[in-house]
Specification:
With 341 residues, this protein is an all-alpha fold. The protein is 79% helix and 0% strand.
C-alpha cells in the first residue's frame, strides 16, 4: 500500500525473485505456445462472425460488467464502514485501481498503492483502508471458491461424476465444516489468533508493531460485523456472478447458449488459475484456460475463442481508458476542494 511502512526482511531474496520470474516466464510462454496461439488460429477463421454481432448483446454485456464493478465497490463501501466517503469516490477509486492493475508493472501491488492513496485522500482512515484491502484480498477469492464449490454440486449429480468434480466437492465440504467449527469455537480460535499475532509482532521491527496491531484489530472488527459478512455473501459473490454473465452473453451472441453449470465451472477455473501472479490480471492464463475448458464442455472452438476474447475485451481492456478518466476526475475534485477550503 502507498503509506505502509516497509517490514525489514519481508522482501524475498533476489535469487528467489529471479527464479520465480524465470519460472513464470517459461510457464507463460508454454501457455501461449500450446494453448493460446492454436485457439487464435480458430478465431482468425471466423472473424466475419464478429461483424455480424448484434449490438444489443454488446450493450447487455457492458451493462452486466458495469454491475460487476459496482458490486465490488459496494463491497468496498461496506468494509470501509460508510463514513463521510461518498460512494462515487469509492467507485472511481476502485475503477482507477482496477484499470491500472492491467497495464503497469507490479500489477495489483502498484494499483493497490494508488487505490490506498485515493481512498485516504477522499477522507477514509488509513487503518480502515488497509484492513479493507486486506479483507477484500481474502474475501473476494473466497467468494469465487464458494461459487465454484456450489457449482460443483449440480455438476456432480447432473453431469458425469468425474474425479475433478468429486475432489472439488469434498474440498469445499471440508472447508465449510472447518468454517462452522470455527464459528462454534470462536473463543478458542480467538486466543490462538491473539497468540499468533503476538508471536509475529515480536519478530517485527519496533516501529511497525503499532501499525500492524491496529490493522489486525480493525480486520477482526470487520470480520465480526454481521453487515460485513452479509456484504461478503452478497456483493463479493455478485461481482463474480455478473462478470460470468458477461461471458454467457457473448457465448449466446455467437449462437451457443450453454447451461450455467459448465459456464461457471469454466469461469471459476480460469479465474482461480489467475490467482497465481504469472501475468498482470491473468492475461493469457485466463483466456487459455477458459477457452480450453469451454471446448471440453462441447462448445465449438470458434465460438469459445470469440466469446472469451470478447468477454476479456469488455472485462479486462475496457476499464483501462475508463481508469484514466476516473483518476483525472478524482484529481480535479481534490483540487477543487482544496481551492475552496
Amino acid at each position: 500500500m502507498g503509506e505502509v511502512l516497509p517490514v525489514d526482511g519481508a522482501r524475498r531474496p533476489a535469487w528467489h525473485r529471479r527464479i520465480w520470474s524465470a519460472v513464470s516466464l517459461l510457464l507463460l510462454l508454454a501457455l501461449v505456445e500450446y494453448v493460446v496461439l492454436p485457439k487464435l488460429a480458430l478465431a482468425r477463421q471466423s472473424l466475419d462472425r464478429v461483424s455480424q454481432l448484434n449490438t444489443v448483446w454488446v450493450v447487455a454485456a457492458a451493462v452486466l460488467e458495469a454491475a460487476s464493478l459496482v458490486s465490488y465497490s459496494l463491497f468496498t463501501r461496506a468494509l470501509l464502514g460508510g463514513g463521510r466517503l461518498p460512494f462515487s469516490w469509492v467507485l472511481r477509486s476502485d475503477l482507477t485501481g482496477y484499470g491500472v492493475s492491467h497495464v503497469v508493472p507490479g500489477g495489483a501491488a502498484t494499483a493497490g498503492a494508488l487505490r490506498f492513496r485515493l481512498l485516504v485522500s477522499g477522507g477514509a482512515q488509513p487503518t480502515n483502508v488497509t484492513a479493507t484491502v486486506t479483507a477484500e484480498a481474502i474475501g473476494s477469492p473466497l467468494a469465487l471458491v464458494l461459487l465454484a464449490w456450489l457449482t460443483s454440486i449440480p455438476a456432480l449429480f447432473l453431469r458425469e461424476a468425474t474425479p475433478a468434480y468429486l475432489a472439488m466437492f469434498l474440498v469445499g465440504l471440508i472447508a465449510l465444516a472447518c468454517g462452522l467449527l470455527a464459528v462454534r469455537g470462536r473463543s478458542t480460535l480467538h486466543r490462538l489468533a491473539e497468540g499468533l499475532l503476538r508471536a509475529i509482532l515480536r519478530r517485527l521491527p519496533q516501529r511497525v508493531r503499532p501499525w500492524i496491531a491496529s490493522v489486525a484489530v480493525r480486520l477482526r472488527e470487520l470480520l465480526a460485523d454481521p453487515e460485513v459478512r452479509k456484504a461478503f455473501l452478497i456483493w463479493a459473490t455478485l461481482n463474480w456472478v455478473f462478470d460470468a454473465a458477461v461471458l454467457w452473453t457473448f457465448l449466446a451472441a455467437y449462437g451457443e447458449r450453454i447451461s450455467p453449470v459448465p459456464l461457471l465451472l469454466a469461469y471459476c477455473a480460469a479465474n482461480l488459475a489467475a490467482v497465481v501472479p504469472l501475468t498482470p490480471g491473468g492475461i493469457a492464463v485466463v483466456e487459455g484456460i477458459a477457452i480450453s475448458t469451454l471446448i471440453g464442455y462441447d462448445v465449438p472452438g470458434q465460438v469459445a475463442v470469440l466469446a472469451v476474447l470478447s468477454w476479456r475485451l469488455i472485462q479486462f481492456w475496457a476499464p483501462v481508458p475508463l481508469a484514466g478518466l476516473t483518476y483525472l476526475s478524482l484529481r480535479a475534485q481534490s483540487a477543487t476542494t482544496r481551492s475552496t477550503s
